[in-house]
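Page 37, top half.
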Amino acid sequence: MIKKDIIRMITDSSDLSEEVIREVLDSFFFVIKSALSVGEELELRGFASFRIRKRKRRLGKNPKTGESVPIPPKKIVKVVLGRELKNLIIED
């Protein structure tokens, strides 16, 4: 599913126009990106929480040659699923 599909699904289930939904969705993503870019944590209860984690500098290996390769430190986004979403996905 892509963003356009999400917009279409919301349009089909509401009285809002596609343009309004696109603006709201774009604003929502902007807020998430802005918060993460300054190191702020986000928690959407029942869905997921987003945090920035720092990875330390380390040595990796080139799989083709086996040669050691330095991997620089970097920041990553860690996503932890909320209980409700996790239960929907992991049900047996």
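Page 37, bottom half:
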Amino acid sequence: MNRISSPACDLTTATRRLADIAGPRGWPLLGNLPQFDLQHLHAQFEAWARKYGPIYRLRFGTRDALVVSRPDLVAAIFRDRPDGWRRLETMRTVLREIGIDGLFTAEGEDWKRQRRLVMAAFDPAHLKRYFPSLRRVTERLKQRLDAAASTGEWIDLQHLLMRYTVDVTSGLAFGIDINTQQNPDNVVQGHLDKVFPMLMRRTNALVPIWRYLKLPSDRAFDRHLAEIHKAIRQFVRQARERIAVDPSLKEHPTNLLEAMLAAHDDAGGFLDEDEVVGNVFTMLLAGEDTTANTLCWTLYLLHTHRDAWQEVVSEVDQVLGPERLPCSFEAARELDTIEHSASESMRLRPVAPVHYSENNYPTVLDDIALPTGTFVISLTRPGAVDRDEASDAGDFRPSRWRQIAASVERERQPAQRAVLKASVPFGGGPRTCPGRYLAMLEMKMVLAVVARNYDLVEVGTEHGTPPVERAAFTMYPEGLRMRIRSRSEGAVAD
């Protein structure tokens, strides 16, 4: 069966309509909205999928939404963006209201233009040139970890790693050394962490009351936004001033922001001021939250799967030799086991387990007729819905990524290929995240430093229970802490 139609499809060929699809019963006028638990919304959607099947219907007020968890259909939707599918208009409006109006929210020809310009800033050659800055920030992280290892103190893992990722993003992307690791009162960090919870609330609101009546929380949020925008425009102004003083930076930029300002498309067009600010805002948010939370989950899963952790330690010892952290871009790229572990963590604990989208043209999805603009929710975590005991899709097994990498294995293990194709931590198709290489490089640096220098004594919550998954636009582990000790001289390979 052709599961997703072409733009010229005839909806009369479908045998089902959205109204025919079963789902949880909602309230009059309000639909299922009063039943939503926003802090656990992704888990709630997955639980309903286990009850009603991999395709079911929800009502957001008076609007129907189709929820899809089948990996083949989710992957097909991602592959067909941006031509066939776009971000949910409600979400785009909320993002634009707060100033995130760049590549993340762009669609159509505007997206294609910005994509070319932003991708030029994330070229691997640029990342290699920025590596010394990344190493400097990572050395500061090691100093903090050394202190924690010497005292045996518990580390607030999310707090620590968010400061690290903000420092990396501001240094590599903007040429600004804000050093939140050693200056915890830095204003940027204090304002950024207010954004995602508010986005979660506003995206799922039945009525955009903040547009008509500002609650105290909205007024406080506006103050945080004002400070963020002030800092971003200062970053941009400083970058423009550096380029004006040294025009050679157009050809040889020293950071991603300079590269973005210098990049132009084939017609000679540049990003305008609002587009630059929107993309900088996006990089700050994505650079702080998604990478830090993925690192949290990866450290937790490696701690609870000691064989996988020992494989990481062995590889890091071999690649780094006497060094205590990766000293070159090339050394970091050799850490394949770390990449496999992070990829497996992102598959099982994706920071974006729910995606909202609308179709750009009449579509037949698995024999269901979807008129243009139908609200579709994609659940991206394989194994969360289909709990087949014969499948290992829900197991943490980084080695699967190494096995599937070989062409022979790809031919022999189609079931494993399906598991990996269902994983879309950086999106899929043309709209794959342009910052994915930077994110993976950061994760390799952090995990290499931890594996090379410390034993994982404990990674868990205060009460010793598995961390609870919380949703605040992205999904994060609540209350995850880590305790480490320095590796003995005999445990470190020389």
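Margin note: DSSP finds 18 helices and 13 strands in the chain.
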